[in-house]
Design a protein that fits this description.
The protein has a single domain (32-232), classed as Creatine Kinase, Chain A, domain 2. Helix content is 39%, strand content 19%. The chain contains seven helices and nine strands, in the order H-E-H-E-E-E-E-H-E-H-H-E-H-E-E-H. Strands 1, 2, 3, 4, 5, 6 and 7 form a seven-stranded antiparallel β-sheet that branches. A hairpin with a 5-residue loop joins strand 4 and strand 5 (98-101). The longest helix has 22 residues, at 108-129. The radius of gyration is 19 Å and the shape is globular.
């Protein structure tokens, strides 16, 4: 998403932001749902995190998905950093988490089929290179320094910036996974209502799907360490 830039005053920038959000309004007949799913990859024999490069790596996963299942590659310089097909994208989070950014679909049932198809593809390539994937909120055994930083320019910038603010920014980048949902809206009022409902449901969803009680091989004192760490990202 690109936010319009301006050298004008605060009021002008607020108006630009409001106009940008208003441009996303759609009639209900055009509403779609898009989901994002992240997971950690690791080596089957050593249980260590997948490196970016090598015969058993994130790069090998992306190239395998590209060749076997017809995804189009996305490059940054000489490095493959993602895939795209039919409105969906496979991308990399900073620590090598493999993410499916699903296509805009009409029903939640279609998103379920989409992610199941994606997981079948991932498992097929992973089996061939001796890798496995796990969906947890936080990496259960790996230390921060064990997690590779993916070769994307903006991640280098983010990594440097996060070290200057809050207390858990770089850990959130490299050692956590999440599931997200994207919804359309018809008006400002509809957007506000959906946002308020989402915020009200967030604690319930966190409790229902808490999956990060371990960190560096030990109990961390939280059912959802990812949620705790997220609240600490921008605090000191």
């Amino acid at each position: 998403m690109s936010i319009p830039q301006s050298g004008g005053g605060l009021i002008e920038r607020h108006e630009q932001l409001a106009e940008y959000l208003a441009s996303g309004c759609k009639p209900k007949s055009d509403w779609r749902i898009g989901t994002e799913h992240e997971k950690f990859g690791y080596l089957e024999d050593t249980l260590g995190p997948l490196p970016y490069d090598g015969p058993r790596s994130i790069k090998a996963m992306l190239e395998g998905l590209q060749k076997r299942f017809g995804w189009d590659p996305v490059f940054e310089g000489d490095n493959i950093i993602g895939l795209t097909k039919g409105g969906a994208n496979v991308s990399l989070e900073p620590g090598g988490q493999l993410e499916l950014s699903g296509a805009p679909l009409e029903t939640i049932h279609q998103t379920c089929d989409e992610v199941n198809s994606h997981l079948r593809e991932v498992h097929e390539i992973a089996d061939e290179i001796g890798a496995r994937f796990i969906g947890l909120g936080a990496a259960p055994i790996w230390r921060h320094e064990d997690m590779p930083l993916m070769p994307k320019g903006r991640y280098k910038l983010m990594d440097s910036y996060m070290k200057t603010v809050g207390t858990h920014g770089t850990e959130m980048m490299r050692r956590t996974c999440t599931v997200q949902v994207n919804l359309d809206f018809s008006s400002e009022a509809d957007l506000v209502q959906k946002l308020r409902v989402a915020l009200a449901l967030q604690p319930v969803a966190t409790a229902l799907f808490a999956s990060s009680p371990f960190l560096e091989g030990k109990l961390n004192g939280h059912k959802s360490w990812r949620r705790y760490g997220k609240t600490m990202v921008m605090t000191r």
